[in-house]
Q: What sequence folds into this?
């Protein structure tokens, strides 16, 4: 294996550091605006925050029912995450088994991924309404209870587990469900982390579906609250950006907590041998 | 057996430590808020030379979405001290008015939580007569 010269290595690292900083600039700008009341259109723009304070966050907490929105978002995301891990693990395991029509099911799943959610939103709404789930936490989480991408993540993870291990578990008398829970899931932590992160972020940021099915303001989630806040406080960018930071923070926290397994889950099938 | 190894492994997981730390911090913060949210706002009113102004009317304005609305009114005592006991807001403005002295500048007071007990560091000061 060729060894890189220190100069080339430093140059590569310097480039990566510059790119990383460029990626972080929008986040920095949002946080900088959130802790000041600076006009974002001011020219020349100030790089460092002037007179920073945290009172914009206090304003957000009290001027709208933020705690209620936060609670709603947490409950809905928790239902979506639990549903995803359970249902996707079951579906993923089923797709690793041989059964008649398996290829057709796979083709159906893949073709369903091509259909945008906006195209199926009316039937989804009608089904949810027929089930009496409008304006409920379960209804808010309903379309997110299982996602096809995450089913394939579990399928790939389960296929990587040696078949002999599953056969041994079956010989020991484990049922199919216990094979998933006791054998496959403990060996598929990266897949679980990928499911948790993706579902949490999708559910947390979901705007259109909660907008459609909530009638009661007390059932609204944070993205709806953000839109409502924007309509009330369009001239105060500091408070608006503080709201954006408060909405973003839980997603970033969950990602940071699960990033090791998440990255392993994404790269586990990337190399062979 | 060493102390570190006796700790149950899942207790050392970041999925326990981070939410646990957040819960502890939140409970501590709520305890602090509950012991400091009586709605007391206290301060002094002085004239341009720094002398206390007794009998000055002090108004408390509470922040709404767009404007500040008057929520309380009191008068200063012989020492020029005023006190509100029922502030509910997290963001208020205070203004004093006295016959012959006019109006003081509005003092903006931003609090860390609603009804936080607060004492003005600087008094409300009337401008010098023209």
A:
């Amino acid at each position: 294996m060729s060894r890189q010269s220190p100069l080339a290595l430093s140059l590569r690292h310097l480039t990566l550091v510059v790119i990383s900083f460029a990626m972080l600039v929008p986040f920095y700008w949002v946080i900088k605006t959130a802790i000041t009341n600076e006009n974002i259109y001011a020219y020349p723009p100030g790089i460092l925050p002037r007179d920073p304070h945290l009172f914009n966050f206090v304003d957000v907490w009290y001027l709208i029912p933020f705690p209620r929105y936060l609670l709603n978002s947490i409950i809905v995301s928790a239902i979506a995450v639990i549903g995803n891990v359970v249902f996707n693990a079951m579906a993923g395991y089923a797709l690793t088994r041989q059964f008649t029509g398996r290829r057709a099911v796979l083709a159906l799943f893949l073709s369903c991924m091509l259909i945008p959610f906006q195209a199926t939103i009316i039937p989804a709404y009608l089904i949810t309404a027929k089930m009496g789930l409008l304006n409920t936490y379960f209804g808010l989480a309903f379309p997110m209870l299982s996602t096809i991408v995450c089913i394939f993540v579990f399928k790939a993870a389960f296929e990587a587990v040696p078949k002999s291990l599953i056969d041994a578990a079956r010989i020991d008398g484990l049922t199919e469900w216990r094979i998933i829970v006791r054998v496959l899931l403990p060996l598929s932590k990266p897949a679980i982390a990928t499911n948790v992160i993706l579902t949490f972020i999708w559910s947390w940021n979901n705007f259109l579906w909660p907008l459609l099915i909530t009638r009661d303001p007390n059932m609204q989630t944070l993205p709806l609250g953000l839109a409502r806040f924007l309509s009330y406080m369009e001239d105060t960018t500091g408070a608006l950006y503080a709201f954006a930071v408060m909405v973003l923070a839980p997603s970033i926290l969950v990602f940071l907590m699960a990033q090791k397994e998440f990255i392993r889950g994404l790269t586990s099938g990337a190399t062979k041998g | 057996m060493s102390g570190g190894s006796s700790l149950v492994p899942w207790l050392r997981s970041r999925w326990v430590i981070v939410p646990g730390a957040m819960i502890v911090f939140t409970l501590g913060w709520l305890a602090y808020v509950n012991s400091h949210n009586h709605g007391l706002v206290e301060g002094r009113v002085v004239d341009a030379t720094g002398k206390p102004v007794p009998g000055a009317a002090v108004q408390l304005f509470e922040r709404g979405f767009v404007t500040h609305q008057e929520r309380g009114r009191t008068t200063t005592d012989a020492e020029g001290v005023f006190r509100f006991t029922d502030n509910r807001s997290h963001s208020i403005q205070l203004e004093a008015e006295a016959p012959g002295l006019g109006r003081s500048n509005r003092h903006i007071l931003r609090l860390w939580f609603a009804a936080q007990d607060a004492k003005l560091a600087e008094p409300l000061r009337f401008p010098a007569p023209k």
The longest helix of chain A spans residues 66-96. Chain A touches chain B at residues 53, 55, 58-59, 61-63, 232-233, 253, 257 (CB under 8 Å).
